[in-house]
User: What shape does this take?
Amino acid sequence: MSQQKKTYNDLKKDIIDKQICVSCGTCEAVCPVNAIELKETIPNLLGNCIECGICYENCPAASFNTEEMDQKVFGRKRKPTEKLTGIYKKAYQAKTTQEDIHSKAQDGGVVTALLTQFLDDGGDAVIVADLEEDKIWAPKPTVAKTREEIIKAAGTKYTPSPALVGVKKAVKEEKREKMALVRNTCQMRGLSLATAGPLKNKKIADAVALKIGLFCMETFNYDSYMQYLKENDVDPGQVTKFEIKNGRFYAWNGEERLHRAKLAKVKPLIRSTCQRCTDFASEYSDISVGNVGSPAGYSTVIVRNEKGQKILDSAIKSGLIEATQIEDFEEQKTLVHKLAEMKKSSHQ
Ligand SMILES: Cc1cc2nc3c(=O)[nH]c(=O)nc-3n(C[C@H](O)[C@H](O)[C@H](O)COP(=O)(O)OP(=O)(O)OC[C@H]3O[C@@H](n4cnc5c(N)ncnc54)[C@H](O)[C@@H]3O)c2cc1C
Assistant: This one.
């Protein structure tokens, strides 16, 4: 822990007021007296702060040392070939074989298929990003316990979902002991601190059995996003899928394209905190999934450790997923490497 203990007041001054909070929800999840609560994805002090310093120490926007975390999470340093992607074992192109999953999923449906496999293998909950009932296209961290609940939450929401708030609910309120969670890159860093950092939370560390990371170039600010849609005559209530692909932003209603724009046009929607993020491939997950580097309808999957390999093998064995290894991934010439390099070099 840092020599001078930093408390919620410092979190407010250094992170929240400077608009670099990543909205991971880690501070809320680790606060031992439940004094912090996220409101509109931003932490608020609701109770009495006991000045323990745990929230600041676990905040990924406050500080994050990748070399130290590589050692803690994977027990070794990165090889030169892992500089851009983070530590890994193998990479694959994959998709689910299940039509009900594929039709609802963003890309290959791999994430949803892995989560259902996790329940089949004895997991007791998964934390996904479903949608708020009364706020259009706003994700909410949700504790799913059935295949149906997992499928319902499939698909990408381009604004942050503070998954650690879901972890808190699952662990502290619902007493779940073996769960999986899906998160994008910066949020996975908060989870890494909460499960492996100097002031880690033992209950959370013990309960998180599988970390599925999503590739991520950026997230949108919710209010600007909704305003943009309004200005471009897109009714978000009609949209069944938003998508960023091949340098374009799309809104779809089933097969019908409602909107298409060059990425430069949606740049003003990007949250300021994303400008600081250097992690594209969700480097601290057990298994990372994204769409770049694979054909339409498939996902690119990076298996990082034994846990990641085990769940993928299990889903292949039960016929939920088909996967082909990307043999030349180590040559670092894929689109994943290109975007990871772009993010690291432009976001330092
Ligand atoms: C904000 C964001 C930006 C992304 N940017 C890129 C990118 O630049 N390049 C790229 O290759 N891939 C990116 N992805 C990942 C990509 O959109 C797909 O999520 C990924 O390919 C998995 O597809 P799938 O069909 O296997 O997922 P699905 O089977 O559809 O499952 C997706 C899972 O992710 C969860 N989820 C959705 N939105 C969020 C969220 N905001 N936070 C946490 N969990 C969420 C869902 O609840 C679901 O469980 C991004 C994802 C997000 C959320």
In short: Residues 278 and 344 are 4 Å apart (CA to CA). The chain has two domains: 8-219+270-346, 222-269. The mean pLDDT is 95. The longest strand covers residues 90-96.
